Amino acid sequence: MSRLRAGEWLAGVAGLGMLIALALPWYGDASGFESLSVIDILLVLVALLALSLPVLQATQGSPALPVAAAVLSVAFGFIGVLLVLFRLIDEPRDGYEVAFGAWLGLVAALGITAGGWVSIANERAPGVPPGPGPEPELRSAPLGS
Questions:
Q1: For 18-44, what is the mean pLDDT?
Q2: How many alpha carbons fall within 13 Å on the CB side of residue 100?
Q3: Nearest to 118 by CA among 27, 13, 1
Q4: Which of 25, 100, 124, 131 is in the most buried spot, having the most CB atoms within 10 Å?
Q5: What is the spatial distance between Cα 35 and Cα 40, in angstroms, rounded to a whole number?
Q6: Domains identified in the chain, total number
Q7: Considering the domain boundaries, does residue 143 fall inside one?
Q8: Which 8-state DSSP code applies to residue 98?
């Protein structure tokens, strides 16, 4: 757990928030699972990807998989934001008011995207000092010496 940074925590919490949001009402009394056709499956996949980011960061010795998961979280989290925005603008159930779950889904999708972005921006593990500074400039010896 000490290997987790702010980005991984944010992505994991937002992924869990997306799963919770889909179980809550989105339109009237209908949950996200009931009122969304294919989008709910895509959002579940985005949430699972976000949940994989802290797991990979905590368990992998190499940064390759966590960095790849972070990059995918940014890309698919953004797609999730667009899908939720689409459903907020174009309601699938006419005559029903947009409920709390849809707004929580939007916040969760934004959190997944932001968590992946923060994870990419901070590539080093906590407590590990940054690498050496820039390499020294190499100069040739003067010709007359």
A1: 94
A2: 4
A3: 13
A4: 25
A5: 9
A6: 1
A7: no
A8: B
Structure token digits, residue 92: 């699938």
Does 131 fall in a domain? no
Instruction: Supply the pLDDT for residue 122.
Output: 78
CA nearest 115: which of 76, 73, 52?
73
User: pLDDT tens-digit profile of 62-102?
Assistant: 888 999 999 999 999 999 999 999 999 987 767 788 999 99
Can you tell me the distance from the alpha carbon of 85 to that of 109, in angstroms, rounded to the nearest whole number?
10
Token representation of residue 78: 């953004």
Q: Which residue, among 46, 43, 57, has the nearest Cα to 118 in the 3D structure?
A: 57
CA 72 to chain centre: 8
Using the 8-state DSSP alphabet, how is residue 5 labeled?
-
Please give the single-letter amino acid code of residue 70.
A
- DSSP, collapsed to helix, strand or coil, labels residue 144 as coil
End-to-end, the C-alpha distance of the chain in Å comes to 58
> Residue 110: pLDDT above 80?
yes
Identify whether the C-beta of residue 2 lies closer than 8 Å to the C-beta of residue 109. no
Answer whether residue 25 is part of any domain: yes
